[in-house]
Amino acid sequence: MLDAWLDFHRGTIAAKVAGLDDRQVRLAPVPRSELTLLGLVQHLAEVERQWYQRVFGGLDVPAPHGGTGFALEAGRGMPEALAGWRAEIERGRELTAGAPLDAPGRLDAQSAAAVGSETVSLRWILLHLIEEYARHAGHADLLRESIDGVAGV
């Protein structure tokens, strides 16, 4: 059930960026915001890497898009961002395959201070990712609708 809800929200993000050109995915149509659909996909690749590879897997891997992922680069478009995001999803699935929901992941000091614990379970990670995707799917709804009027899934 947890994987199914997370996959639903992942699918929503993919649907929001489908069919848009490079110019459209770089638009920040909400006043005073630089949030873009391209930046959201890049950010979600970073989120996937953070929680599955770093926290759950204990791997020391760099940020795929230089930090939060929201920054845009002229040479990187949506096809590259989607491929990277999907690769991060698959890597996360590999790392968690067969793991019990109570299996722990270790947080860095900054995250531990925010969460109030040095460890979180795979269950906690999955629930957090469902929340993260649901929040950003809402952002994607607003961005997509302001670009070309497409609303909903």
The named CATH superfamily: dinb family like domain
Structural class, by secondary structure, is mainly alpha
- Number of alpha- plus pi-helical segments: 6
Intertermini distance: 20 Å
Q: How many structural units, i.e. domains?
A: 1
Overall pLDDT metric: 91
CATH class: Mainly Alpha
Shape: globular
The residue ranges in which pLDDT falls below 50 over 5 or more consecutive positions are none
Helix content: 55-70%
Strand order of the largest sheet: 1-2
Q: Can you tell me the CATH architecture? A: Up-down Bundle
Task: Evaluate the radius of gyration.
Answer: 16 Å
Number of separate strands:
2
Please provide the ordered H/E string of secondary-structure elements: HHHHEHEH
CATH topology: Four Helix Bundle (Hemerythrin (Met), subunit A)
Query: Per DSSP, what share of the residues sits in E-state strands of 2 or more residues?
Result: under 5%
Largest sheet: 2 strands, antiparallel
Which features characterize this protein?
single chain, 153 residues, mainly alpha, Four Helix Bundle (Hemerythrin (Met), subunit A), two-stranded antiparallel ribbon, 6 helices, 2 strands, globular
Short synopsis of the structure:
61% of the residues lie in helices and 4% in strands. The protein has 153 residues and is mainly alpha-helical.
What is the secondary structure topology, with strand pairs?
Blueprint: H1 2-17, H2 22-25, H3 37-56, H4 78-96, E1 104-106, H5 109-115, E2 119-121, H6 122-148
Antiparallel strand pairs: 1-2
Helix pairs in contact: 1-6, 3-4, 3-6
Please give a structural write-up.
The protein has about 150 residues and is mostly helical. The chain has one domain (about 1-150): dinb family like domain (Four Helix Bundle (Hemerythrin (Met), subunit A)). It has helices at about 1-15, 20-25, 35-55, 80-95, 110-115, 120-150; strands spanning about 105, 120. A two-stranded antiparallel sheet has the order 1-2. The longest helix is centred in the C-terminal third of the chain and has 27 residues, at about 120-150. The chain is globular. The model has no long low-confidence stretch (mean pLDDT about 90).
